[in-house]
Recover the amino acids of this structure.
C-alpha cells in the first residue's frame, strides 16, 4: 500500500479513483480505458506540478518518507559479495550503522550506511537510524581498515542525528563522532558519501566527510532538524516549516553553498515511487565519482579533502 504525504492528498484522490475504476471494470469487462487514461494524465500533471515547487518543509517530509529506499536497499542492490563486519572492538555492535566489505561493480570496497528500518520491528532494532558511540567507532574502524587495504569507502547516510540518550553521552558520543569524521578526512583512499534521506547534524557528517558528497534530489542535510531548530529559536516545534526554510537544507541550497558536490535526480514523485530507478541513478553517480578519483595518491586525496572542508568554513564565515 502506497503512503501519501499531506500535500499529496489531491494526487492520492486521483490515483484512488483510477484504481477504483480498474477494479470496477474487471468483473464486468467494461471498457474504461479512455477514462483511466484521462485521469492518469491529470494525476501525472498534478504530480509534476506539485513536485516542481516543493517547499523545504515538504522536501523534509519526502526525505523522511517511510517507503524511500534505505541503506540496506542500496547495499543489497549495489554491493555484491557483501560481508558484514560487526562491532567497535570496545563495547558492542550498533545496528544503526551497517558496515562491511563487498564489491561495487566488481571493485572491492568498504561500505557504511545508517539504517532506519522499514517496519516497527526493524526500526526498533536499528534505533531509527540514530547511532550510539559504538556505531561511530565501528565506522572509524572500517574506514581505517579500508585505508590499510587500499579500498574505496562508500557511505549511505540517512539519519535524523546521533542518539541523544544519557547512555550514549556517558560513553563519549561527541568524541566518537569527532574521531569518525577525522578518520574519513585522513583516509588515504577515495571516500564517496551519498545522502539518501535525512542528513542530520554530526550523526550524518560522521559518515559524510568525503571527497565527493552526493545528495538525492529530495534529501535534506542540516546541522539540526527543523523541529529541533524551531524548539530552540521559538520554543515551538510547530514552527518547523519556518525553520526548514531558514536552515537551507535542500540539495539545491547546499549545492549552491558548495557544501555538496552533486545532486542525484529522483524519479517524478520521489525515490519512493521508483526504487529501482533511484538505485540505478545512485549507482551511476557513484561510479562517476570513483572514476574521477582513481589514480590519485593517498596524500593528495587527504590534502584535497581537508582543503575542501576548510574552504567551506572560510566561505561561510567570509
Amino acid at each position: 500500500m502506497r503512503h501519501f504525504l499531506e500535500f499529496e492528498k489531491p494526487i492520492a484522490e486521483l490515483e484512488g479513483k483510477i484504481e477504483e475504476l480498474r477494479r470496477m471494470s474487471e468483473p464486468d469487462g467494461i471498457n474504461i480505458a479512455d477514462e483511466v487514461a484521462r485521469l492518469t494524465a491529470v494525476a501525472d500533471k498534478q504530480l509534476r506540478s506539485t513536485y516542481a515547487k516543493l517547499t523545504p518543509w515538504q522536501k523534509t517530509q519526502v526525505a523522511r518518507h517511510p517507503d524511500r529506499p534505505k541503506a540496506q536497499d542500496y547495499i543489497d542492490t549495489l554491493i555484491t559479495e557483501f560481508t558484514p563486519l560487526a562491532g567497535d572492538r570496545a563495547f558492542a555492535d550498533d545496528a544503526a550503522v551497517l558496515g562491511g566489505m563487498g564489491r561495487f561493480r566488481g571493485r572491492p570496497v568498504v561500505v557504511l550506511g545508517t539504517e532506519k528500518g522499514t517496519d516497527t520491528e526493524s526500526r526498533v532494532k536499528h534505533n531509527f537510524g540514530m547511532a550510539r558511540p559504538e556505531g561511530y567507532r565501528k565506522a572509524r574502524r572500517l574506514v581505517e581498515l579500508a585505508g590499510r587495504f587500499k579500498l574505496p569507502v562508500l557511505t549511505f547516510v540517512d539519519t535524523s542525528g546521533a542518539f541523544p540518550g544519557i547512555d550514549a553521552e556517558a560513553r563519549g558520543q561527541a568524541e566518537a563522532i569527532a574521531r569518525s569524521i577525522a578518520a574519513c578526512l585522513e583516509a588515504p583512499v577515495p571516500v564517496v558519501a551519498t545522502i539518501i534521506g535525512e542528513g542530520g547534524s554530526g550523526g550524518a557528517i560522521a559518515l559524510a566527510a568525503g571527497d565527493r558528497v552526493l545528495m538525492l534530489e529530495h534529501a535534506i542535510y542540516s546541522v539540526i532538524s527543523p523541529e529541533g531548530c524551531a524548539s530552540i529559536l521559538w520554543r515551538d516545534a510547530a514552527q518547523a516549516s519556518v525553520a526548514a526554510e531558514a536552515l537551507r537544507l535542500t540539495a539545491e541550497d547546499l549545492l549552491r553553498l558548495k557544501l555538496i558536490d552533486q545532486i542525484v535526480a529522483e524519479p517524478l514523485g520521489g525515490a519512493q515511487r521508483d526504487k529501482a530507478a533511484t538505485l540505478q541513478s545512485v549507482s551511476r553517480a557513484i561510479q562517476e565519482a570513483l572514476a574521477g578519483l582513481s589514480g590519485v595518491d593517498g596524500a593528495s586525496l587527504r590534502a584535497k579533502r581537508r582543503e575542501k572542508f576548510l574552504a567551506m568554513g572560510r566561505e561561510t564565515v567570509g
Q: What stands out?
A: Residues 18 and 40 are 7 Å apart (CA to CA).
